[in-house]
Amino acid sequence: MDSRSMYDVQINSRYNDVYEKNDLPTGNYEVVTDFLTEEGIAVSADCAFSLYLPNCEDFHDRVKHEFPVVAISLSDYNAIREMLGYEAITLEENEFTTQWHTTATTDEQEEFIRSHAVVDTDVGRLTLSEQASYQEAMGETLYNSYTRVVYVFPDSVCQNLLSVNRNRYIQTSKELSYSDAAALENRFIKVYPELSENGVGYSIRLSTLQINEAKGMNFILKTAMIYGAVVLMVICLTILSLQQLLDAGQYRYRFAVLRKLGVEEQDIKGLVMKQLGVWFGLPVVVSIIVSAIVVAYFLQSVSVEISAYIGIGALITQLSITISILILLLVCYFLSTWILFRRSITE
Q1: pLDDT tens-digit map of 251-263
Q2: Residue 256 pLDDT
Q3: Pairwise CA distance, residues 165 & 13, whole Å
Q4: How far is CA 117 from CA 73, 93, 95, 322, in A?
Q5: Residues 313 and 182 in one domain
Q6: Is the separation of the CB atoms in 8 and 169 below 8 Å?
Q7: 308 and 253 in one domain?
Q8: Are residues 192 and 251 in the same domain?
Q9: What is the pLDDT of residue 250?
């Protein structure tokens, strides 16, 4: 939520389904301003800005994962940075820099910067600034579809470029109530649908709604998965325990023979412990090995997202809680089976 809901009100548009330049979005989403005024909700920061195509001819490039990188003006970029508590940046004339999504890797940035040290725009050529990139968290809607970088151009350059997206970020003086956030979302959707008739896609994110929905979904997901893990664990351990206890009659005779041969009772207890250790330990060891392989592959494939959105510490804490529950179940089943088995062979 720290990455997705950085603003109390976050509005963005998409031109993915727009094929006429005259249909591109304009305006500052006045319906939001009207709602905040009517409800007496004070605003501490407000930035409406456009995202531009460096080259107008890129407007019709709609190949998935090959959308062009868009640009933001320096003044709008600094306004957003100030809103989030970051220091403003400066650019010389005919210079540009880049802003990266928090999930972008260092190798990805370096490769892009090497191949884009110079950018040709509709109003001339720009060269990369000495400070080539920034990666502070600034939300997910700052970037074009399927891209994780945005150019930062001087204002004089952006004034002559094609504006394709129109966004607005708002910070309110106090947190929006759930009812106000829901009412604002409903009013916005009526005026700016998810996909309008001219192909423009609109989206509004309100931190109050997102946080509540995310917490609810996260709780349901965690509960369902932990419950499922516990149920499966109970089924497996019950089968293992019953298998040993049902065969206790056969083992009673075998251990009685060992006693007659002079085997000490303490040694018999050790043999029982080893036998149950094998029957319980082998499935557990196999499951741990398989789980370790799956978890290692999963963590490797989404390590950047985990680091950017969750944090390794938080993930380890969640995993530790789940693993502790499963270990507690294993210990309870093992001890209860060991006690019952010993009584069975003794009688």
Answers
A1: 777 777 777 788 7
A2: 76
A3: 5
A4: 18, 15, 10, 48
A5: no
A6: no
A7: yes
A8: no
A9: 75
Residues constituting the chain:
347
Greatest distance between any 2 Cα atoms in the chain: 100
What's the confidence (pLDDT) of residue 110? Answer: 93
Q: Hey, which residues does 61 pair with through a beta bridge?
A: none
Of 182, 145, 151, nearest in space to 13 by CA: 145
Name residues of the chain where pLDDT drops below 70: 2, 308-309, 347
Cβ neighbours of 234 (radius 10 Å)? 12
- Domain annotation covers residue 223: no
Predicted local confidence at residue 213, as pLDDT = 87
One domain, residues 156 and 288: no
Of 142, 176, 205, at which residue does a domain stop?
205
Are residues 266 and 137 part of one domain?
Answer: no
Residue type, 171: Q
Q: Which residue has the tokens 């043999």?
A: 271
Q: What single DSSP character describes residue 177?
A: P
How confident is the model at residue 149, as a pLDDT?
A: 96
| Domain encompassing residue 89 | 9-205
Report the C-alpha gap between 293 and 139 in whole angstroms. Answer: 33
Q: Do 335 and 257 sit in the same domain of this protein?
A: yes
- Angle among Cα 298, 302, 307 to the nearest 5 degrees reads 125
Within-domain flag for 266:
yes
Domain-embedded: residue 227: no
Answer whether residue 115 is part of any domain. yes
135 SS3 class? coil
Rounded to two decimals, what is the model's pTM? 0.75
Q: How many domains does the chain have?
A: 2
Please report which helix (H) or strand (E) contains residue 164, including its range.
strand 162-172
**pLDDT score recorded for residue 308:** 65
Looking at the structure, do residues 253 and 197 belong to the same domain, yes or no? Answer: no
Helix/strand/coil for 316: helix
User: From edge to edge, which strands make up the β-sheet containing 71-73?
Assistant: 118-121, 124-134, 95-100, 149-153, 71-73, 43-53, 162-172, 9-14, 201-206
Shared domain for 261 and 192, answered yes or no, is no
